[in-house]
Amino acid sequence: MRNFLMLCVAPTLLVGAEALKWPPTLPSGKSVDTSTEASFLKPGPNLREGVAVAKQAPAVDFLFYPGQDYPGKPWSAWGDGLAVGDKYYSAIGDHKAPDGNAGLYEYDAGAKTLRRLVDVRALLKLPQGHYTPGKIHSRIDLGKDGWLYFSTHRGSTRITTEQYHYKGDWIIRHHPGRNVTEIVAHAPLPMQCLPASVMDPDRLIFYAGTTDGNYQNKRVQLLAYDLAGRKVMYSDDHGFARCAILSRSTGRLYFHATGREAAGEAAPERLVRYDPAKPGPPVAIDAALRMRAASRELPSGLVYTTEQDEMWEFNTRTEKARRLGAAMVGTRGYTASLNADPRTGRYLYYVPGAHGGAEQDGSPVVQFDVKMGKRKVVAFLRAHCEAAFGFIPQGAYSTAVSPDGARVFVTWNGNRGAVPGARKVDFNTCALTVVNIPESERQP
User: For strand 82-84 and strand 407-416, is the pairing parallel, antiparallel, or unpaired?
Assistant: First the structure.
């Protein structure tokens, strides 16, 4: 993806990334700031009618990602993270090409520490001039074997070629307990990038939707990879572009097989089902919904999806879908990460404006009440982050909810160096916020 320019409100100049201080630091000199501010409950300028605002402000932890020691092109996060106990796993990359780099990170909520677990460039040890990925664009998933799995993706679309010795991207795994990282597979499908994924943690199957190394070839392949056997189980030319539903209870995978990008006000699209118990071409089912982001399956068999201004529910037991209501809270609807509260299953959390523009709505963190079909903003983060840290939170592709439903983790693509009131604001820095939701705002 390119370094898109995000509109704000009035023309002025920006500080270039090269002129900023690297790595980014907090004004206090500390590694983390924790605040509870009244401004968290002050609505952004575009709050829609019928959208509630929390009554009690959360405590919010703020950190810059370490390892941002030089200007990226830009430093950014494009893959979805994961909460395990008190830990949150996420990834950022420098988006450079052909010599990019990316890393896997662990945040410890108890210690309030953020550290890099995997340095992809250091792991691959490739010669100078060889392609190295500038992004981890996939989901991060934890297998029953205790390993975290993810895959890599390019920066520029023009460098996944033989000129840069490109053969395909990597599936990588890391074991947090043993602090060991391994390459699982290189180029499981030849000349294919691996930007989208979901993993079956029990059957140890890694599913990916690919992008062809040749940017002019628009096919999206489906990959089902056997992690234990280290082999391709199935592949075809009709994969998922960005998102898929995994039913952990049944092992089945559901997705839109046309490879289309989520955009505009498209009609609900029929799902297809891939069943690893009967490997073969996915079959269409009698269920249609919209899906750019999907939650993990709850014990009830329910999964939630969203795209633009729609929230959907999918029942993996009955294979039926229903629309729950509107999802947008302001002007931005593009949402790339959706998480259900594992404790109650009642609340969904997300950040609209994934690719930028969230700041125009105040950088809201949203709670959707499935029981009531209502939206509530639990925190508007722009005002405080900009005033206190000089950071504008613009969009998020990675969010997660702690197992007890008490914390919402958000990895932000954002900007440092913008003059107040800037008309054009670029991504250049990644930061983490941990929104500690008051019990009063998440009653069962």
Answer: unpaired
Lowest-confidence range among 145-159, 254-268, 372-386, 410-424? 254-268
| CA dist., res. 320 & res. 3, Å (int) | 39
Residue given tokens 């508007």 in the structure block: 380
Residues whose CB falls within 8 Å of the CB of residue 163, separated by 6 or more in sequence, listed in order: none
Report whether pLDDT(8) > 80. Answer: no
CB within 8 A of 9, min separation 6: which ones? 421, 422, 423
Three-state secondary-structure class, residue 55: coil
Q: Which residue has the tokens 């993990």?
A: 296
For 19, phi then psi, to 5°, come to: -85, -10
CB 107 within 8 A of CB 114: yes
CA distance 343 to 232: 35
Band of pLDDT at residue 444, cut at 50, 70 and 90: confident
pLDDT score, position 13: 40
d(CA 280, CA 292): 25
pLDDT level of residue 3 (50, 70, 90 thresholds): very low
Between these two residues, 429 and 258, which has the higher pLDDT value?
Answer: 429
For residue 432, give the nearest of 41, 50, 107, 210 by alpha carbon. Answer: 107
| 287, two tokens | 């269920």
Instruction: Classify residue 45 by burial, with Cβ atoms within 10 Å: 0-12, 13-18, 19+.
Output: exposed
Token reading at 372 = 């009531």
**Nearest partner of 340 among 364, 299, 304, judged by Cα:** 304
